[in-house]
Here is the input.
Amino acid sequence: MFRKLLNSLTTPAAIVLSAAITFPSFATIVEFETSHGNFKINLHDETTPVTVTNFLSYVNEGSYNATIVHRNAYTQTGENFVIQGGGFRFDGDLVAIETSPAIMNEPLYSNVVGTIAMAKGSNVNSATSQWFISLKDNSFLDSTANGAFTVFGEVVEDGMTTIAAIAATPRCNLGGAFNEIPMPNYVCTDGGAGAENFVKIISVTISDSTINSATSLSPVMNTQLSQDNPPLGNDVIKSSSDGGGSFTWLMLSLFGMLSLFRKVSNS
Here is the structure.
């Protein structure tokens, strides 16, 4: 049911209509149970309806259960940047999850600390299942030139404590999409990693189905949509595929004096 509804919301006409009508909402707050603790996300279901409907379709079908956080990115100066998940699970090997058709972009809010946004590929309207949580002010991702990444919720209550614990997990470079993968209790040169050596998303479930719970939030608006040039560098977003399934990589280019950030992949 959710997939059919999602497909009906991914056309340009549906995006235009979203400004005039209220889309159905299946939840406002979801809870992530992880190997490092739990955290809750309050979704902007009424203001980013296409993105939230897409996200909740994966939640309701259990697609995020038993997945991993596959990216723990730092800036070039060593600051925490983002954690990223929603794309892979470990089943002896790292494998991509099944995804639905890509959705239209809804860049209404700013990518500030504690927000959750959709990662995507080279097409601005190419987000599928992967999400990332900003660990710092990443408002440079708001601009059209930088892809205008859609923020669709924010971490609430004491959830950033869990996010910080995940961000503090040592990383390994397993190559390709997994060059900044957090791996607890593991020596990167050892080989033979097991399920206990990944940051696991055990489950993502609806914890509050109150449609208007987001009214208590004060999200920062995206004010950069009219900008043709990025304030802190340029986004380069590439697509790639593997034998186990297609996936996309989101990467931040490093340009001269503006090379402040490491790559962030949508893998």
In short: Residues 1-26, 228-265 have pLDDT under 50 and may be disordered.
